[in-house]
Amino acid sequence: MKNVLLAVLLLGTAGGVFAAAGSVSKAEYLQRAASHFDQVDTNHDGVLSEPEREAAMAKLAEKRAARRGTDEAMPHREIKGDIAKADFLTKAGVHFDKLDSNHDGLLSRDERRAGWQAMRKP
Fold it and tell me: Are 106 and 24 in contact (CB under 8 A)?
């Protein structure tokens, strides 16, 4: 399912948001997602191509391996085709809503952790 890779990109790229000790608002989450999109969109055309996404996933895997000392693959499935920034941010909003288990408009550290753990399950 294409949403799995997208979620991995969102989770993996919201670095500061997910490292935050406190709660994260939807606006903060979407701001980080937009910022990450801009970083991954290396040709700055407003669209993430497959090669750009593959490069981002490789970079995330590299960082994860350095941090954990393992080259364990991150779970994901391939997305085919391009993703426009508007679509990416729409999916980021949906992803936030799924993570926000108590529907208070904020992601607590526990909600973020639970979302990450759910992503790691096959």
Answer: yes
At 93, phi and psi to the nearest 5? -65, -40
User: What DSSP string describes 34-92?
Assistant: HHHHHHH-TT-SSEE-HHHHHHHHHHHHHHHHHHHT--PPPP-----S-EEHHHHHHHH
Of the chain, the end-to-end C-alpha distance in Å amounts to 12
The rounded distance, in Å, linking the Cα atoms of 113 and 74 is 15
Name the residue among 101, 113, 107, 115 with its Cα closest to residue 29: 107
Predicted pLDDT at 65: 82
Pairing of strands 47-48, 106-107: unpaired
What is the C-alpha separation between 97 and 105, in angstroms, rounded?
8
Q: pTM (2 decimals)? A: 0.73
pLDDT tens profile 44-99: 999 999 899 888 888 888 887 887 776 555 555 556 789 999 999 999 999 999 99
